[in-house]
Amino acid sequence: MKLSPILALALLALPAYAASKQDEAAGAILFRDRGCTYCHGDHLQGTDRAPSLDKVRDKLKADKITAQITHGSLQMPAFGEILTPPEIAQLVGFLRSKHRPAIPPAPAGATPAAPPPLPSTKPQ
Ligand code: HEC
User: Fold this and answer.
1) Angle subtended by helix axes 85-96 and 62-71, to nearest 10
2) Which of 10, 23, 58, 74 has the CB geometry, 3.0–4.6 Å to 93, for a possible disulfide?
3) Across all residues in the chain, what is the average pLDDT?
């Protein structure tokens, strides 16, 4: 299905998506499996690569977190072409959760996806 530009704009203008508990739990798994923990730590505690996200809820509104995940920054890869908008919304729901679900341990033998390259190292 092709979205009309007007409908696409209307969707973008919708108020911040309210995440359900299921979405938050799905976000926890995406965080674990899509490379976020590589830099932000297994429990959001931060590493020498990236800051802790434990208190990000108090710092950034959902739209800012969405933008950070979608576009990345100099030090953080952009996930906008890797994750779908609903997946990004689940991650935002997880990070913004008041009672954030614990990240479940990865299944035995699973190797988490390597994070995508940083914009600065991406071939043009
Ligand atoms: C290669 C390392 C790396 C990966 C992988 C990474 N990040 Fe980041 N992230 C950073 C760095 C570094 C910053 C802080 C400064 C900046 O924006 O460059 C950051 C900042 C953030 C911020 C803003 C924090 C603040 O306090 O302003 C959010 C939210 C965030 N990352 C979420 C994620 C999510 C969700 C993922 C996985 C989809 C992810 N990051 C993957 C390196 C990474």
Assistant:
1) 130
2) 23
3) 87
